[in-house]
Predict the structure.
Amino acid sequence: MYKAVRARMRALVCRMRGARKDAGMATSEYAMGLLAAVGFAAVLYKVVTSGPVGEALQAVVNRALSAQV
């Protein structure tokens, strides 16, 4: 029984070590992810502040605020 418990513990420890190897991003990956997020935010900001989209969003907000309860 001791050998079985020891084998299970060894397998569990090995599995935990394997999970920790790629648990996070390296600094370069973090920087690239941050640049991608900033780029996406800039594109989204330009789209949302454009004329037609802004008018559509304003219409949705006005309709929601004037809804009868």
